[in-house]
Please model this.
Amino acid sequence: MTVIVRDFRPEDAEAVAASRRVILPFIAVTPRSVLFDVETANPAQKMRLLVAEKDGEIIGTAYAGVAYDSSEPGQSHATPQVHPDHRGQGAGGLLLRAAEEHLAAEGATTMYTWVMDAPENRAFAEKRGYRPTRTAHFQHLDLAHAALPEVPGALPPGVELRTAADYEADPRPMFEADAEATSDEPSDIDTDLDDYEDWIAHIWNNPLLHRGLSTVVTVDGRVASYTAAYTDGGTRYVSAMTGTLRAYRGRGLAKLAKTDSLHRARAAGYTDAYTSNDGANEPMLAINKWFGYEICATEVRHVRALG
Model:
């Protein structure tokens, strides 16, 4: 009956994916994506996937890593997550402590964690010295029955609809667009996507990324806006990132990209669309509300000093 915390093993992939689907039903995860996260992690991330095990059953996980792609050194992140049938047995506390010790040993001075917005979860974090910083909202759209706006039959001059699959021979235009859009995302930890090879390894080659459903809007041949679609091979379609380059904002291109991508996803048989936005990202929250997305869960970012 004792709960133990240990490092992930490859044979855990299926159990970890199954557990995370229950804990976070609004994300896309597969055994292959779990293995990918561990096997391709940048060495500078010092990433460890910790699992909590009870009587041979995996009941919780925590990804712990250093924010290696941030301009501010010493930042790190870890979010313990425990299966709802096994909460209150100490697994969350053990996962958190193991993550803190690992990250402190790697030189991290600050640790961020996401906490679901429920009284017991917030109390768990605050009891351990964490303070809240910002919120994020998970949103759901019943894609099978939603009244989606139609993709315009005639696009403005110079505007074209493509997909990420059209850039498989040369993904660099996608990298450059993603780098600019990501740098403007509201967050506690800034992200500098300045390493093309790292981006290829961890974002472009992510097995969850469905390039054929990821719509790209070009203006005069240049990537202007895009939405990246993650899928789990089942029913879930997740908008992992939607961005518009600064020079093209305010022209409705993000709506156009998401409209096209959602239609592609529904035609491919996906029935549940999910996305997540920072609570301060009012433009994207408004766009998703316009599509009919409804908030299905909220999480709160917390932080504390290490060491």
User: Anything to note?
Assistant: The longest strand covers residues 131-142. Residues 91-105 form the longest helix (15 residues). The chain is about 30% helix and 30% strand. Helices lie at 13-23, 31-39, 91-105, 119-127, 172-183, 196-204, 253-267, 282-291.
